[in-house]
Give the backbone structure.
Amino acid sequence: MSLDLPLAIRAFEVLLGWSLLLQSAEYLRVQRIDRVGDWRIQRAEVPNAWVRQWLDFTYKPTLYSILLWLRGTLALALMLGHAGLGSAVVLFVMALLILLRWRGAFNGGSDFMTLVGLTGLLLAHVLGLFTDPAEAWRIALWYVTVQSLSSYFVSGWVKLMRPEWRSGQALTVFLDNGVYGPLSAQSIYRWPHVAKLCSWSFILWEGLFPLALLDVRLAALFCAIATVFHFLVFWFFGLNRFFWAWLSTFPAILYCASV
């Protein structure tokens, strides 16, 4: 079992493009209903007058909507395999502007993992100007892989250091605050042994994720578990961005585990 480079590139582009397309649709929807993230309030945090004026222009509702529609169009082009260096640059710059618009992140780690994917895409196209395009893509996929594996590794070992995770108490608290929370009094996740077992399963799986690079079959197993995990995060917390943002990195992991 292995994943060759052309297939890994195509899978990465399709999944990243789909993730960006969904995010763009969300931003457009939020723009119509948002009553908190008012740029007129946030602009006071920008000290430089020239930068503030430029951002005032960029974040005008009409222009901001145009930028989001353009982002969605470029995401679709990426899915279809028609995105080059220009598209990669524009998508990367747009991601930075959106992060700035939302004071660093709109939806936590998923936004930064999206930026990782876009950085990988930009690396592939920029390095492709100076070296063999295939080699440039290898470097880009390794970059995405290291960042993705590190995110799981750090998350697992941070949990290991926290007594509330080792005891299982943190899991119950998190689920109590989910979309369908609080948990019912009869929920099995309130059983100490079940909560502790689930917590330690997450700790070990995340902390050992870098072992996925030892063999592509092991990588496939870790990625399959991750897919279920992120789907459960979406199911319990409504965080669909996390599902697609991390899923878009799996082709890179599978490729790097194949070589």
